Amino acid sequence: MAPQHGPALPALGGRRPSYRERVADALRAALITGELRPGEVYSAPGLAARFGVSATPVREAMLDLAKEGLVDTVPNKGFRVTAVSGRQLDEYTHVRALIEIPTTASLATTADPGDLAALRPVARETVTSAAAGDLIAYVEADLRFHLGLLALAGNGHLVDVVSDLRRRSRLYGLTSLAEQGRLQASAEEHLDLLDALLARDEETARTVLTRHLGHVRGLWAAP
After folding, report:
1. Is the CA virtual torsion 174, 178, 180, 181 positive or negative?
2. Model pTM?
3. Which pLDDT tens digit goes with each residue over 82-111?
4. Domain at 19-81, CATH from 3.40.366.10, 3.40.50.720, 1.10.10.10, 1.10.10.60
């Protein structure tokens, strides 16, 4: 199924986010998937129409993204999406692997099984979003799943670092993968990872996550 565009804002788990935060999350996901392209200038009213919301929360959300360095303000026009080089993406992915792989794999012996099982609905959400070709919902669920796992390690700063790296990444290849029906297979790796962690199989968990993160600069990277 072809990927969807201009989606309705998703419902997020945990603390109920403000409307501005929901808009910002959807815009970040649109940046990551390449639905909002680097170098392009987007106006708040134009984005509001695209996402089916009012202009004010979009403008506020884009200002938040500007503070994060994801967009630049263009006076009297809107916001320009900042470009990310291949070298930057390689660096982001390398740091993520150094942090995420050992931290997540160690949960096989340290995490409470109930806490791990509680993430299964989010893992399934990545699969259903991939099957539907809803890239923005996929990216948001993927983020919540991986950050949810890392949070079980009990290091909030680590979660913040990985969250920032993920939001700066670009996964332009997701569109073609969704159109080819291949994204669902990648999404199902979330369930494989959970199964390994619940089985207390640290080595398999490490193998699955290593392969999964490898998609970032492999399957998911191609424009």
Report:
1. positive
2. 0.78
3. 888 888 888 988 999 999 999 999 999 999
4. 1.10.10.10
